[in-house]
Amino acid sequence: MKKLYITTPIYYVNANPHIGHAYTQVIVDILARFYRSIGTDVFFLTGTDEHGEKIEEAALAAGFKRGEEKKFVDGIVNNFKKVWEVLNIEYDGFIRTTNDEHKEVVQDFLNRMKAKGDIYIGEYDGWFCTPCETFWTDTQAEDGICPDCKRPVERIKEKNYFFKMSKYQTWLIDHINSNPEFIMPEFRKNEVLGFLKENLNDLCISRPKTRSPWGVELPFDKDYVVYVWFDALINYISGIKEHMDKFWPADLHVIAKDILRHHAVYWPIMLKSAGYEMPNTIFAHGWWKMGGEKMSKSKGNIADPTELAEKYGVDPVRYFLIKAVTLGLDGTFSEDSLVTIYNNDLANDLGNLLNRTLTMVEKYFGGVTPEILQDPGCDEQKKRSEFLKDEVGDLLEVVYRNMTGKKLQLKQVLDAIMGAINKANKYIEESAPWKYSKENNMKAVKLIIADLLDILRDVTIAINPFMPATAAKMKEQLGLKEEDINFGSDLDGNMYRGKARSSDWRRFPGGTKVKKGEPLFPRIN
Ligand code: ME8
Question: Is 422 part of any domain?
């Protein structure tokens, strides 16, 4: 793939980010880092959703007056940016819906839809959930309760503008059916198709300024602002306005399941109406829960990513978020499970492998890695290669396949990495290099250490997108150069093509001075 345009949702700025928001950021950051490392031209867009009644209410509640909303949101936006910096999130663009450039794109988009004859004025008589910023019909909001968040909805009756969504329903169903990777995971696609079995209602896309003026003015009626979801979705266009030719259509919109309908129904129809190409994939991950409920700022059952990163380190938090849950499913957050995964995977397995191997390089070879031995006929080597082949020989191949697949099997990548690390630790026990050393069979010791170094190098390459700071430390300790740990190049500077390796897979440079350092992950008791 030559280019990758990948996005996160833009988050509401009514409160500070929690671990649920961090989750999406980390997923997208990992993918962006991986694709950059195989030479793809990546644009990673994130940002903030700053309009709508909900934000206005939060500003007023925080003591700001009408007209001062921007001051309030500026503060929260900075908090978001700080958290992303802490978590080592390397985005290419940050879009704020209060930017003038964004507003212009929204207005242009609406004008295109209007010119197409897809917008009309009518009377809205129905329900509105302010926390979800969503309109509901009588049947959907049974007993005056929002079907999503279960909070009371408000009855609204007013003149508004509508978007003819219904006109595109058949087209959308066809599009979803003929593009099997448009909505992922597959069970979410089926959910959307199920929803599309009912007739789509036209969507109310305006709010009278008399109710709330905090939004983008409708280009064709200055008494109204745009419904905040319309304003928000268009960020995916306004955020790459200067690079549309190169990056549109989006390759991957990563979201959580709560906003699937907006992305898989409203957004494609809006794009179709305004004359844009469709994104390739919308991937909806699950929810982090706490106390049995979705972690959510309005409920207050949240975990703070900055506090966790301070306590356990940034990389362990990134690692935990991916390792603990298969992408697509829900997960229950607890610090206990973070600590368990930290101790098992990072302190015991990964940290130990590096530490033991470097200790042996120091002890047996004065801290300089042994020359690469090319002796595939040697019995010792054959035995060891057999032992290591499955989990280790194909590691980068497995990583490559899972990272580039549309299923986003990131947990499976970490499982494969941990499988290789475990195997390597077992290999140390089974091959017992200290015995060979006692027998003065240094050729065998060299072979074993060279195997271990090669595994460590592959592990460093494979974990780099997940735990960039750890990969950098491993690189330092192993005495490797930046290009050695880049997925896109092997030691010969060739692009990695997923070639499975057999007994001649050693490529760790011999004669390298290692620098054993502090343990990567001290155990937490
Ligand atoms: O919906 N578990 O913003 P938002 C997993 N502004 N992910 C979670 C989560 C949880 N408990 N809580 C939040 C909006 N997220 C709109 C989006 S996009 C054009 C407009 C993540 O602040 C997840 O990515 O409510 C979810 O989709 C997003 O935050 C919702 O953020």
Answer: yes
pTM, full prediction: 0.94
Residue of minimum CA distance from atom 29 in ligand 1: 21
Q: What is the mean pLDDT of the chain?
A: 91
In a domain, 364, yes or no: yes
Domain of 482?
335-492
Ligand 1 nearest atom to the CA of residue 235, by list position? 19
How many angstroms does the Cα of residue 222 sit away from the middle of ligand 1? 30
Q: In whole angstroms, give the CA distance from residue 1 to residue 370.
A: 37
Q: Which atom of ligand 1 is nearest to the CA of 286?
A: 5
Q: Whose CA is nearest to atom 8 of ligand 1?
A: 20
Instruction: Give the sheet arrangement for strand 221-226, strand by strand.
Output: 206-208, 221-226, 217-218
**Is residue 452 included in any domain, yes or no?**
yes
Instruction: Give the CATH number of the domain where residue 401 resides.
Output: 1.10.730.10
Whether pLDDT at 452 is above 70: yes
For 84-103, how does the pLDDT look when each residue is reduced to its tens digit (9 = 90+)?
999 999 999 999 999 999 99
How many domains is the chain built from?
1
Residue at 488: amino acid letter: G
Angle formed at CA 208 by CA 137 and CA 144, multiple of 5 degrees: 25
In a domain, 83, yes or no: no
